[in-house]
Amino acid sequence: QVQVVESGGGSVEAGGSLRLSCAGTGLPSAIDFMGWYRQAPGPGKPREVVATTVRLGLSYHADSVKGRFTIYGDFARNTVDLEMSSLKPEDTGMYYCYLQDSTRQRGYWGQGTQVTVSS
Predict the structure, then answer these.
(1) 3-state DSSP call for residue 114?
(2) Cα–Cα distance measured from residue 69 to residue 37, given in angstroms and rounded to the nearest whole number
(3) DSSP 59-87
């Protein structure tokens, strides 16, 4: 049974830091893409990419988080962390982990972890 579980969310004041962690278990094949996405509160808000990393070692960070967030992927252990600093109220949202096996076109989402940043 595949499980993707996030942890590390919480409530912090603006300027604070959090580290999110995600672990995938029971995966039937090798993962080559990992990412963190977030969805701001409110109806109709899209799930947007925050940061991604691939097995080759390349990573991407959205402009809104560049210089403040860093993604760390461990493809041997199927874990991916998101280090967040200098948090802003606009970073508030539900953060989701995504693991993908691109070869077999299989993707797996976690249930999400809430991050709330107060001003």
Answers:
(1) strand
(2) 12
(3) EEE-TTTTTTEEEEEETTTTEEEEEE-S-
Per-residue pLDDT of the chain (119 residues; tens, 9 = 90+): 999 999 999 999 999 999 999 999 999 989 999 999 999 999 999 999 999 999 988 999 999 999 999 999 999 999 999 999 999 999 999 999 999 998 889 999 999 999 999 99
3-state secondary structure of 88: coil
Is the Cα dihedral 38, 9, 63, 69 positive or negative?
negative
**Would you state the structure tokens that stand for residue 116, as one six-digit string?**
């709330």
Cβ atoms within 10 A of the Cβ of 80, count?
29
